[in-house]
Amino acid sequence: MASYEPVDLGEAVGTIAAQAVGEPGTQLTMRTFHAGGTASKGGDITQGLPRVEQLFEVRSPDNPAIVSEVSGTVNDVKQDEDEEVIEIMPDEEYRSGEGDEMKTYRVHKHRMSIVEEGEDVEEGQLITDGAADLEELYEHAGKARTQAYIIKEANKVYERQGASISRRHIETIIKQMFSRCEITDSGDTSFTIGDVVELAELKEENNEVAADGGTPAEADRLIKGITQVSLSRKSWLSAASFQHTTRVLIEAATEGSRDELHGLKENVIVGNLIPAGTGFEENERAQEIARLQEEEWD
What DSSP designation does 267 have? Predict the structure, then answer.
């Protein structure tokens, strides 16, 4: 993955990414870094290994940065006792036409504004210092900007410790964080509303249903921490080998789950040749994955 050549099908990029991110993690000190400067004198900011964990596990930080819910113009930034107050006049598309349209944000005393009066802001923009709540950021800023934020913040932590990590390794992990979706309309599929499933599983079943003339399911993309992603894998063997083994096994037994043994861990557990490297070439999923690569993925 360091040769700038296209990666072969069957390459264990997840394992490589985990090692690339985890090895320099030993250099990260578990400490709290008090940042100085104009845009960050609001208080202690979690850094080092805890900050990386906070990002990859999608944990909400204490006193998160305020994310603008609208696009508009900053009308005023004023002091109210020990808090700052930011007023934003929304653009026309964000107005309901009823009453006072001004959007007001009260800034926690341990945070400070990073916008000025008259400045244009857009929905999803951070208007105070501090770490963003990733779920809130995703809701207002969208997938691409949230992914860019995670990459920037993760790289910042490693660079402060003198460690450099290729962007592609972080991107590999982030792809898994956005690989789950929640069913909002089951259509003619076997899913039920509220199910959280893998995006690939949704597309596979939708293709089968559409081929039979049925109505495909609809779903909202989610952002999940890497632990939640591991525990929500279709393979119950893989999930059980990770955490909450008893619960996973009980659920798999009561649901009569069948493991198709598509991944690495489940094949290692049962003693099969893993579907990676030379073992991947003989794997029946190789052609299916090649076909899925040709499809459009949001």
Answer: H
